[in-house]
Specification:
heterodimer; A: mainly alpha; B: mainly alpha
Chain lengths: 315, 274
Amino acid sequence: MELIPDQQDLQPSNPTPNGPDKSFIPHSAFRTPHSGDPAWVRWLMSGITVGFLGVMVLVPVAAVFAEAFRNGLGAYWHNLTADPDTRHAVYLTLIVAPTSVALNVVFGLAAAWTIARFRFPGKPLLSALIDLPFSISPVVVGLMFVLLFGAKGYFGPWLRDHGFQILYTVPALILATTFVTLPFVAKELIPVMEAVGPDEELAALSLGANGRQIFWRITLANVKWGLLYGILLCNARAMGEFGAVYVVGGRIGGQTNTMPLEIETLFQGFNTPAAFALASVLTMLAGVTLALKSWVETKVLPMEPPSAVAESLAG
Amino acid sequence: MAATNRRVLPGFRLGLGFTLVYLFVLVLVPLTACLVKAGSLPWDQFRDAVWTDRTRSAYVLTFRAAFGAAVISSVVGAIIAWVLVRYEFPLKRLFDSLIDVPFALPTAVAGLVFSNLYSSAGWMGRILAVFGIDISYTEAAVWQVMVFVGFPFVVRTVQPILESLDVEVENAAALLGATRLQTVRRVIFPALFPGLVTGFAMAFARALGEYGSVIFVSSNLPGKSEIAAVLVVNRLEEFQYAEATAVATVLLGASFAMLFAINRLERWSRRWDQ
């Protein structure tokens, strides 16, 4: 193993067909400070970037608002507020998403404290387990809860006999959403807590602080921006979650339809203007999330650059 | 690593206990239920459930579209990352923040708006109609939404690698007589490759399980345009729990394989770090 890097390192200095013998100071050195790309390559690649992002992102976002406001502000407001099912969907999303986020904040803090502050056997396994929900299709998550709580499920009949119905109710929506968004807070907090280190907590301990004081005054204060970052990503996903709640909610308008599900119901019912009105609200919330996210990044960045992989997993 | 003070700081048992109970109740119990259900099927029934004309066509479509979309995402994502890191142009910060939109925008909104845009009356549909192209409710539309949800993964994994790549190394390569193409092939590409593969795997895994946006843009016809995730839901709605579970197990297996591959790739890409 030790020898392999050396062999690799040697390779670039081996003479190549167009190697150093060509000329000592080649024509291509010392070009623009940023890259040696010829102008046409720069124009082509910039064109692809601007064109792709324009067609894939800018045009759709613009289209959401164009369609939502197509018939004017009055019709827009009517579409949003007149239908009790739509109003209930907004209300339900405002119940389900914050509850799931709150649960995952408590979990994230406990998991990050355990993983970033202590050494114990099985730590990599625990980390992998926290990552697991990222890689399971939301539809499959929904199916798992149907298998548990459905009429023919493992717990369903017993729960029914004792007067509980989970499937097709709000608790099922919360369970499914919490599963899908489980890793977000923990994955943001672990690297931040590791970067801060335990020195201040150890100092506080030696000065006689108890666990509660250490947590509220030091740990939480040190990781607050990382925590906020995780909450933002978790909340964005929780409000937009579709596949898992689609399966466990049963799509009962006015009862278990969250905003994304109501959009689908309206779309299937050919009520496209109302679907777009509701979609515009979610798009605005996504915009707020992104604005807050870049604000938090300016706070987190001096301390710890947010890990790109953890961030991109935020899908 | 600072995590050495095992018994000095308080809260280890509380933290670990809570973490384990939470993961057990929320993740392990449902996951086990799915695997037990799949395992309880007699082999013949399992095979019949996962291997019919309808399921085969769903796997083929899902893997083809997810793979194709991940390839497109990788190529375009690498170009976007390169442009954002190396070039200066007006509104660059705006374009950089656009990358995150697919992460923050609910997939139902994406599905709704793409379905509308590429319909014959939509903005994009009318432009494409000039060239005689209509992608609404076709497989191309499925690829398109899968690229939408996938490309940010590639950009956001490649971007930091490019940022940490020293321009001096390229200058040195050029000074030693390498043409620009050689520098790209021999210096830049090998450095980017691990990140590119990780981004590809993430985009692929995400596209495999994508549901919300696909049902809006696809015609979802069984045996023709029905992707695996849609098949699971449709089987559930037909109360065919066993078949739904069998197909879901195949999807689970595929995503675990992807997770494992990502893990190995990340370890492999860090193999020279000490």
